[in-house]
Amino acid sequence: MTTEVRRLATRVTKDAARQIRGGHPWVFDGAITSIAPDGRPGDLAVIFDDRRDFMAIGLYDPDSAIRVKVLHHGRPRTIDREFWHERIAGAVQARAQVFDPSHTNAWRCVHGENDGLPGLVLDRYDQTYVLKLYSAAWFPHLEVVLDVIDEVVAPAQLVLRLGRAVQSTLDTGGGPPSVGGAPLADGATLRGDPPERPVRFREHDLRFEADVVRGQKTGFFLDQRDNRQRVRAIAQGARVLDVFCNSGGFSVNAAAGGAALVHSVDISAPAIAAAKRNMALNAGRAAVRACSHHVSTGDAGTVMAQMVGAGRRFDVVVVDPPSFASRQRQLDAALHAYGQLTELAIDLLEPGGTLVQASCSARVTAEQFLETVTAAASRRGVRLDGVAHTTPTPDHPVGFAQGAYLKALVAAVVPDRG
Question: Which of 13, 178, 224, 233 is most deeply packed, by most CB within 10 A?
Answer without folding.
Answer: 224
